[in-house]
């Protein structure tokens, strides 16, 4: 596998893992297992651990994860994005 293909596969896997984690946090919040303050603090802490060189991309990923977690926590039963 060429380097660019490997990077694309690895990136897709990391995004899938991040999405799964965000949905899990949102589900825990929805079920009142995880207080809202704890979810907020988890994202704040994660952002504080980003190395300087990874901050722009990492902060963007965390913002998307936060959005997914919040939408999941609100508990709408609509179809997920992309019809999956």
Tell me about this structure:
Helices cover 73% and strands 0% of the residues. It has 84 residues and is mainly α. Helix 1 (3-30) runs parallel beside helix 3 and helix 2 packs antiparallel against helix 3. The chain is flat. The two termini are 28 Å apart.
Q: Which helices and strands appear, and what pairs or packs with what?
A:
Blueprint: H1 3-30, H2 36-48, H3 55-74
Helix pairs in contact: 1-3, 2-3
Work out the helix count: 3
SSE string: HHH
Number of strands: 0
What's the gyration radius in Å?
Answer: 15 Å
* Overall residue-averaged pLDDT value: 87
- Cα distance, first to last residue? 28 Å
Largest sheet: none
Which structural class fits the helix and strand makeup? mainly alpha
| Outline | flat
Q: Helix share of residues?
A: over 70%
Ranges with pLDDT <50 over ≥5 residues? none
Tell me the β content. Answer: under 5%
